[in-house]
Amino acid sequence: MTYSSEELLPGTRRALLHRIASAQTEGRTPSLVAAVQRQGRIVWDGARSCVDGHAPDSDTQFRIGSLTKTFTAVLVMRLRDEGLLDLGDPLEKHLPGTAVGGVTVIQLLAHSAGLSAESPAPWWERTPGTLRPELGDVLGEQTRMHPPGRRHHYSNPGYTLLGALIEQVRGTSWEEALRREILEPLGMRRTSTQPQTPHAGGWAVHPWADAMLPEPAEDLGLMAPAGQLWSTTADLLRFAAFLTDGDDRVLCAASVEEMRPPAAPSESGGSADYGLGLQILRQDGRTLLGHTGSLPGFLAALWFSIEDDVTAVVLTNATSGPLAGGVAADLVGIVAEAEPRIPEPWRPLPEIDGDLLALTGPWYWGTRPNVLRLTADRGLELGPMQGDGRGARFVARADGTWIGLDGYYAGEVLRVVRNGDGGVSHLDLGSFVFTREPYGPASAVPGGVDEEGWRGLTG
Prior knowledge:
This protein is an alpha+beta fold.
């Protein structure tokens, strides 16, 4: 039997069901719903519940906690793309009077501003936001835990400040900006700041007995940008598709990609990092991007693998149940390993630019051989001929130069330097000279080349 690209094999579907069934049973959560997306399409969903016949589905809302932070980060990136702020701006430039105005926007996005992890007592997740009516009530007196920019230290008050920044610059509420700028363009009609029927209720499960207690669902007030949202698996997969490919109605692909690299040294070390509103997890040889979330009564996780083109969402309604992040990561792994992504067919370029083609091939930085390749998008790719080393992809600019997109040369300018007769002399990359020969006699190498040239031991 053949399967379309939208379908998963029966064995894969059973493995996915087994994983969430085990998670619901072993994690002792009242209910759990999950879904997997591949190639932009939902290819599997499943649910388990402690009540027969009442399992949630892809349209059932759960509270998603800190997954909200990724939405807030996207709103900030939109302000940057519109030229309304710079990520390096100090907070006080746009939001004065906070007592932490020297921290920068990018430090807040990356949780590297050195702010406290939580607001002052009482426990903000289980108390009304009206108890913290001002930013000073959220920050408290001990605002600085670490020097800004030195380390990643997760901060819920930091994302409260970003929400206030959005409101100040936009001139509207965070909720309205979210609805107008993200939810409506992406068709996320089942994502909201308050629960909408059908939605799950939040529960605490006794640690030593099979007993449950309802959890309150408080409005977080000013702290909403750090964790207020309710959503569904279907809506979160729409959001994940945007985070994978970008959407010019919300944020272009280049800006979405900018959110992904680690932005500060990891607090815990090991396999986890944080970008700009995105968590980064390395597991079983793959890199997962997304975010986890928790609030009393709920756990949530969204992970996507760019390389595998697989996304998984897991939502549960227990305060301390199955580790949703681990379950979602396992769902990605099950699909990626059982049914690996089929590569796109190789195709030649539609047309050849002779000048670009002439630049391809070996180039030498000193005596180190590198290869310059022409890519399908008319960009260039430079890398070592063998083994690991410095390299990058480059995209053309209007002035005839190229700008590095990634790797060691990210942001660096590549120039083709020509002789008086118009022939290519060498490549200049951030002052490094790449020549066609290793220290050839006529090469334009800084410091010159010994006139006697290459020699042997007795030469």
